Each structure stands twice: as C-alpha cells, then as structure tokens.
C-alpha cells in the first residue's frame, strides 16, 4: 500500500535557523498525531506536507506524488491551517463555497458541498453571518469546514483545537474521530498530549526539528503524567470555576488573571472531564477559551532528548 | 505511481489557468471593492470632478476664469493628461498592483488559495483582473462626469466625444500596463509601495524630461502617445505641447504597453509560483 505521506531525509532551513532536520518518516492511513512543543517544527512539517514550502534537502511525497508545485494533489488534501485568518467580511457559507469553487466545482455543486461541510461542523445556524462576528470556536470550525468541503482523502489539521471552548473541543474531537472512521487519513498536530490522545494512539513526536519517536502514545503518556499540566481558561466567572476546582483531586495550584483562571493539574483527564461538565451545565457561566502552555511537554521532551 | 484524481463533482485535476483565474476573480472582487483602498480610489477619482464643479460654479457667477482662448475641452484635456494619466492611473495602480499578493500574505489568507488545486499563476491573474474591474469602475465614471461638466464650456459635447472615447480607452490601457508592472514589483520587492511611488514620481518624470531614448523605459511615454487632445498654440500650454512632440506613434505605444503588460504578468506569475511564503504568527 502506498503510504499517505513519505518523507526521506527532509531538511528545511529558515536562513540560519533550522526548521526541520533530516526527517525521515512514513505516515500510513488512519489518524496520526504530530505532537511537539511550540517551535518543535510541527508547522514546518505541515507546510512542507501541504506544499507551501519546498524541502531544502530530501524528498517528500503524498500518495506517492511530490507535493511542491503540484496543484492537482490538492484535490486529495484538505488543510486546516493554524493561523486565525479569514476573509472577515464574507459569511461562512460564502467563504466555504468560494473555496469549494476554487477546487473546480461548479456553483451549484460548490453550494451543496459547502452546506454539507458546514452541517458537519455544526455551523448551520451561523452560516450566513459574517466570519468577523464568529467566536473563536466557530472560526476554528469554519476552518475545518473549508478543509473537508471537497471531501479529501487526507486531512492535515494544524492545531485544530487551539482556543476552542470545552464543548467545541469535545465536538471537534468527535468529528475528527468520525472522519477517521469514514476512511480519511488525518494528520493532526498539537502541543497537548491529552488532545492527541483523545483522537488517536498513533503519534509522531517532534522536537527541535527532529522526529524523536513514532508509535503508541501510552509510553509518552506515563512521562507526561509525571509533569504537571497547565491550563489557561478564559471565562465569564473565573472565581466560580476556581471554587469548583479548589477541592478537585489532582489540582496542584490555581491562579487568577484578568477574566481568566490558570490551573496546574497532575490529572488532566479528570480535569478536562469535569471542565466539560461545567461548561455543559453552565454552572460557572460561559467558558470562552481554553489554552494550554506546553511547559510540561517541554519538560518531557527534554527528558526524551537526554535519554 | 498513483495520480491525483478529482473527487466526484470536482473539476479536472490541474484546472486551467484561465478558468481558475475567473474563480479567484470571483472570490477577490467583492473583497477588493469593499476595501479601504476603494475609498482612496474614489477620493482620487473625485478630485477632477470637484475641480470641474468649482469651475462651472465660478462661470455661473460670471467669474472670468477662462481666458486666452482656453475652452472647456482644452481644460479637460489638460486635466486628463496632467492628473488622470500622470497621477491617478499610476498611483492607483501602485496601490492596487503591489498589494495583489501582499495583502493576502499580510492577512495570512494566502494559505487558503495556495492549498487549492489551481496553479498559483491563476491567483495572480484572478486578482489582477479584479483590480482592473475595481479601478476602472471607479475612475471611468469620474472621467465621464468631468467631461460632461467641462466639454460644453465654449465647446460641443458631440465634437469632443470621439476624444472622450479614446481617453476612456487610455484609462483602461493605463491600468492594464501599470497594474501588470506593479504586480511584478509587488511580488519581487519587500517594500513594493515605496519602489512603485519612486518609479512613478521619480523615474517617470526624469525619463520624460531628459532627451534621448530613456523615456522609452517609462509607461507614461507610451500612454502619452495615445492622448488625443490638441493644445492651443502661443500660450504657456505650448510648453506642454512641445514636451509631447516626441510622442511615439500608436503602434509603438501598443507594442510598448503590451510588452510591459505581458512581461509584468509573466514575472509576477513566475515569482509567485516559485516563492515560499513563510507567514508570521
């Protein structure tokens, strides 16, 4: 079987700075997580895989074909970039339809495909509103919609859950797993193990531009659990949330920032589960944004690099 | 080796440049029309209309502002050459042309265009076509309005109408040539706006003022050859007329402007096709 992605000795430099260093890796069909701290080379790898950058050394192929300067390959690839960038004045429906048309669909087919993609990311209700008025979670989901609108075989998702609220996060994870079950291959990047783990057990570990390890996530999981996990929650009632988590097992520390709560926990699974329950019940008001600095992952990677 | 094949309902792999360009055009036109740049264009295009209105108002109050055989068509001709051709067209082309790709890069939306099954050249061409529609749809009505206000002053609309048609063609041709040139500039240079303005206000003025063949390296030289307006003799306008005596013939103008356009678009398409765009976060 032709691998979905095959990279052979790929290196990429940004002037004097190395982005990716002699990476050789093969990605097979299914969901694969690309896990690494910020600045590890995840986005560089994603940009090489999507043909936005050209390798300085080595070769990179998607479905056996080179991707740089090969626009035909994009019929088979859907890409959800990390950056929060849109045509803000367009509605979600107009934007996804226009991008579908760039994929070669006629107007009617593009409209139908856009409607279908928007429905799959649960954005029908706001599809005719301008993207500029979308919440962070909606913006992430409309980005996912444009990535799947042409029904690609390979989805490349760069930090797709970044900044989503807990409910949006749960919904997005469910969607990604569903797409995987439908036979799409998915490469999804994150600097949060918990996110990757909720989608797949198959990971590529990347740090300092190198793939450190590939395979099952559980060994990494054990290492991660030895390091506290920090979560930043922007919410309407951070003090109410703080009260909820004060007695929560595994919570090591709580810190308040303007309109936000920063939690350090040794039990991220239980923490996220409780947070999602709170978001669903609305007991502590709306939770607007959830981010996780990668301090704990950095520590694990330092350990891995040393060993 | 497996080949990239379209999904059901999608177009053929490797959609042609022209078809893809029209889709980029569709996507870009609305965005371009409702941008701050269009407001700037409208302000620039509105200036000659305002001047013409002031002139008509002064004449209505019998203020002697038109003396020495200067007629409405002559004033219109001067405004067309001095303002529209030498200022409005190149300046608007600089602002639009240099931003065709730069805007998408700055807004970090270029990723969505470059990860679609279309040649990158079609992104340049589609956005260039959108610029042409945007710029001409604002400036052409302003030129017509200015003509309607000025031409009847000691003149006749019917008599100067053929010249107006040529003027309108010059506006379109000017946008075509300058736009292609600055599209190339926008893809090559890191500070294309500065380079473009230096070209328009520095190089073009210098090249036209100096004797010899240097003027052939300016776009204004070829546009100048197309301007149809006659100037009255034995007036200060003679100076301008003499400056125009070295104007090239229509064929040379067409060749020169065509070359600038084709070369500009080819260079822009080639640079964009081969360049890696690293977006800042």
Summarize this structure as a short list of keywords or feature phrases.
heterodimer; A: 307 residues; 4-stranded antiparallel beta sheet; 10 helices; B: mainly alpha; 71% helix; globular; disordered N terminus
Q: Low-confidence parts of chain A lasting 5 or more residues at pLDDT below 50?
A: none
Strand content of chain B: under 5%
Q: What would you call the shape of chain B?
A: globular
Helical coverage of chain A, percent range: 25-40%
Strand order, largest beta sheet of chain A: 6-7-8-3-9-10
Average pLDDT across residues of chain A? 89
* Averaged pLDDT of chain B: 86
Given the helix and strand composition of chain B, which structural class is it? mainly alpha
User: pLDDT under 50 segments of chain B (min length 5)?
Assistant: 1-14
How many structural domains in the coordinates of chain B? 1
Strand pairing plus helix content of chain A: what structural class? alpha/beta
Q: Report the span from N to C terminus of chain B.
A: 36 Å
Number of helices of chain A: 10
Major pleated sheet of chain A: 6 strands, mixed
Rounded to the nearest angstrom, the radius of gyration of chain B is: 21 Å
Helix count, DSSP H or I runs of 4 or more residues of chain B: 11
Distance between the ends of chain A: 34 Å
